[in-house]
Amino acid sequence: MFRPFYYEKNKKTGKKNLMRHMRQNIPTWNSSIAYWGGDRVIYNGKTYEAKWWTQGDIPGKPVQHEWDTPWKAVGQSTAPTEPEPEEPTPIVDLADVPEPVPKENILYPDYSGVDVGQGIQWPKAVFAPYVDATGWPPLTFANLANELMIPYFNLGFIVAENDSSYLPTWGTYYAAGDGPLNEQIKLIREMGGDVSVSFGGLSNVPIHVTAPNANILKEQYKAFIKAYGLTRVDFDIEGQWLSDTPSLKRNSEALKLLQDELIDEGYPLEIWFTLPVLPSGLTPLGIDVLRYALDEDVTINGVNIMTMDYGEAVAPNPENNMGDYGIAAAESLLNQLKFIYADYGMTLSDEELYSMIGMTPMIGMNDITTEVFYQEDARETLDYANNKNLGMLSMWSLNRDKECPGGETNYVSITCSSVLQKPYEFSKIFNEYNDLRNFDPDLIGPPEEMNEIPDIVDLTDVTYAEWSPTQIYVAGDRVIYNDNIYEAKWWTQGDNPGQPVKNEWDTPWSPVITDIEIPSIMDEELPFLEELIDTETDEVEILPQTYPEWSAKQIYVAGDRVEYEGKIFEAKWWTQGDDPSAVVKYPWESPWERIG
C-alpha cells in the first residue's frame, strides 16, 4: 500500500523528520473542494501547495503580501505518471535553525494596573467555552454566572501588536495589561471559577512568530502569565502558522524554558494546544506541532481539536452528522497520540489520553455554511465526553450562543448562531459536564449597573421615531416601540426593544420611564436611592452627590460616573483614557455623556 507520510531519522540532529513520497499525478484545482495545508494542485500549468485550509481561493491570484493568499507556487506541472513513489522529500527541514540576534531595548508591557486575582488548579474534566475577548460590546461573562453557572472560560486571543512587533496584545485592540475583561476575570475567580487565555488564533500574528528568540519569547509569556495569575494557557496554531517551522520550533523551546523556570518556582501551569482536525484526525502539520514540543521535552497537558469546518471532501453530508464527525475526530486523535508518544518512548493508557483531549465545535452554522452544529449534536458530544471522561469540552463561542435577530439565517455571524435556539442553549447543554460544587456566584453581589435607576423624563413636546429592525442605533438613541420609549445602550441593529430578557445585559435597550410616579419597589429594594420624594406633590429632589475624579489610567464601564473639570460625566460603554470633555462631532464618538 502506498503510504504518503513516514518518519526518517535526521543524521545530523538525531531527530525524526516527517517525510512524504511525492507523486506526480497532482489534481487540478477545483473551487468547490476544500484543501488543507500541504495539499497540492495544478492551476494554469503551475503547481501550488496550500499553506492552510482554503476553499474557493484562486491559486496564483496577485496579492500584496504572501500571507494574503493560502497558496504558494512550488513549480511547473508535469504529465501524470503511474503513482509510484519517488525518492522521499522532506515536508519540513528539521535541521537546526540559526537563532535570530536579540534586539536591543526589549520592551515588555506594563502590567502594573492588572488586578484580576490568582488562578486555581483546574478540574480534570471541564466545560470552558471560548469568549472572544475583543468582541463588541464586551461580553460580561461573569455577570451571567447566576443564570448560566459556568465557572471556566477560555479567553482569546493574545497576538503580536503587528507583524514587526513582539509585544503581546489582546487581538491588537488592547495592550496586554489593559484587558477589556479584566474586571470579569476577577469576578469569576472570586466566585470560585477561572479563565485560561489562548495565544495565537487564525487572525493576526502570533507573538512566537515575531519574537527574535526563545528567551525573549519565554519572558513575554512569563510576564503575562504571572500578571494574570494564569494556571492554564492554550496555544492555538492554525492557518499559515502551521507551516511556519522556525517559529514553531522557537515556541517549543520557549515553552520548555518557561516550564522549567516555573517548576523551579513552584508555580503550576498547564499547557494546551488547539489544532485543526479532520474526522480522520490531525493533519500532518498539526502532528508536527506536537512533535516539535515533545522534541524539546515540553509537557503537553492537553490537545484541543477544532471539530468544525471539515469540508465536503472529508465530511460529506454533514447535515445532522456534525456530532458524529466530531466524535470520529476525537477517536482518531486518540490513536494518533498513542503512536506519537510511543515514538518518544512513552506508553499512555486510553484513560490518560482521553483526559488530554478537548473538543471545540463551532455552534450553529460553521464557516463552511453546509456544516451546522445543532443542539442534538451538542447532546451527542456531551454523552461522548461523559463516557470517555474527556479533559475538556468547549465551543466557539459564548458570544454566538443566541439566536440571530431574524431567527434562522443563511449566513455566519460572530454574534449569533444562525440557527433557532434559546439564549445560551448550547452553553446550558454543555455545562452539565462541569462540577459546580466549588462554584458560588452568590459570593459576589449583583453588578453595580443592576442598581441603577432608569431615567425619568418629561416627554412634553418630545417625539421619537418608531423602532425599525433595519435601522442602526448607537448608544443614546431613543425609539418608540409598542407605545413605550427605549434608549440604546450600545450599537444595535435588529434587536427587538420589547424582547423579554432575564438580565438587563441581555438586551441593548433600556426602557425610559415616562410616568413621574416612582415604582413602589424602589422603597424596599433600592435603599441606596439618594432621592427625596415629596409624597404630596410627587416631585423628586435630587440630593447632591460626589463622584471620583476621572483618571486616564482607570477602566470605566457603562454607568460609571466621574467628575472632570467641575462637570459630571457618565460612561456609555467600556472606556479607558478617553477625555470626558473632548469635543466630538457626534455623540457616539465619545464614550462619555455629560449629566451635570
Describe this structure in words.
By secondary structure, the chain is α/β, with parallel strands linked by helices. Among the domains are: 126-441, Alpha-Beta Barrel (TIM Barrel); 448-519, Carbohydrate-binding module superfamily 5/12 (Seminal Fluid Protein  PDC-109 (Domain B)). Helices cover 19% and strands 20% of the residues. The chain has 11 helices and 28 strands. Strands 7, 8, 9, 10, 11, 12, 13, 14, 15, 16, 17 and 20 form a 12-stranded mixed β-sheet that branches. The protein has a 3-stranded antiparallel β-sheet with strand order 1-2-6, with no helix packed on it. It has a 3-stranded antiparallel β-sheet with strand order 3-4-5, with no helix packed on it. The longest helix has 22 residues, at 322-343. Residues 1-9, 16-24, 78-105, 445-461 and 514-543 have low confidence and may be disordered.
